[in-house]
Amino acid sequence: MISVLGMPLPALLSQLVLGLVNGSFYALLSLGLAVIFGMLNIINFAHGALYMMGAFSAWMLLTWFGVDYFGALLLGPLLVGALGLIIERTMLRRLYRIDHLYGLLLTFGLALIFEGLFRDQFGVSGETYEVPQALTGAVNLGFMVLPKYRVWVVVVSLTVCFLTWFVIEKTRLGSYLRAATENPKLTQAFGVNVPRMVMLTYGFGAALAGLAGVMAAPIFQVSPLMGSNLIIVVFAVVVIGGMGSISGAIFTGLGLGVIEGMAKVFYPEGSATVVFVIMAIVLILRPAGLFGRESS
């Protein structure tokens, strides 16, 4: 049997694929963070809580209203995105004229509030959410048997990431967003409703977190702690890729998911810290991140 560094090739390829599945979650979550920071210059610490509420929205829609997974895949992000609109309109908008540290503190406080409310209501043991019937079963890749649902997660995540990148980087709407970020007064002078665009941008970033939560529900335990357990890693991904860089969030999220998977094979003890070691190295060598722009 072919082996690489003493590891059988099928086992190595299997870990690569599993790392890609985790990386797709990292990419989708860090994409939402990058959109919010890149467009609004807000470090959104509530992102993990929004991800958690996306998962709980899927569970509640099924348990309380009988809405299946595919319905939740549409409604869940809309509900979380609507909450994001309310947060931006009623709270964050009041902080734009002062130091950005206050936005970080506000979103951090909101994350603690949301997590505490759900923990009081549902406890910390979590709830289970079954894989939808249409996505049960597995695909034989030759070197491993991969559940169809994980294939679905990778495909949907990559599609959403590509469409988001395309809209922001290659369309007129994206140019308006970038212009509103760099010079809001001039952009508004050309008839663009900048406050509404800012509100919708934050809502879209929140909806991306909600979408990741809905897709995570059948894989991970739906728990109030699921966001806080993941958000630190996702922030590290954004820092490595470059704060506000859309392409950096996508490629770094996927790449670090694979690297983390490889670390579990060759050095399991360090798999939980490999992302942070890479972050430290990148910050020393390139403080703006791999895809970020150095400030003048």
Walkthrough of the structure:
The chain is mainly alpha-helical and 296 residues long. It has one domain (3-232). It is built from eleven helices and four strands; from the N terminus they run ββααααββααααααα. It has helices at residues 9-40, 47-65, 69-90, 101-122, 148-170, 172-182, 184-189, 194-216, 226-241, 246-266, 274-285, and strands spanning 3-4, 7-8, 138-140, 145-147. The strands form two sheets. The protein has a two-stranded antiparallel ribbon with strand order 1-2. Strand 1 (3-4) and strand 2 (7-8) form a beta hairpin. Helix 1 (9-40) runs parallel beside helix 5 and helix 5 (148-170) crosses helix 6. It starts with a strand and ends in an 11-residue tail after the last helix.
In round numbers, the mean pLDDT is: 89
Estimated share of beta-strand residues: under 5%
Number of helices: 11
Largest sheet: 2 strands, antiparallel
Taken together, the total number of domains comes to 1
Output the strand order for the largest sheet. 1-2
Question: Based on helices, strands and strand pairing, what is the structural class?
Answer: mainly alpha
- Number of E-type strands: 4
Helix content: 55-70%
**Uncertain residue ranges:** none
Order of helices and strands: EEHHHHEEHHHHHHH
The gyration radius over C-alpha positions equals 19 Å
Give the CA-based shape: globular
Q: How many angstroms does the end-to-end distance come to?
A: 53 Å
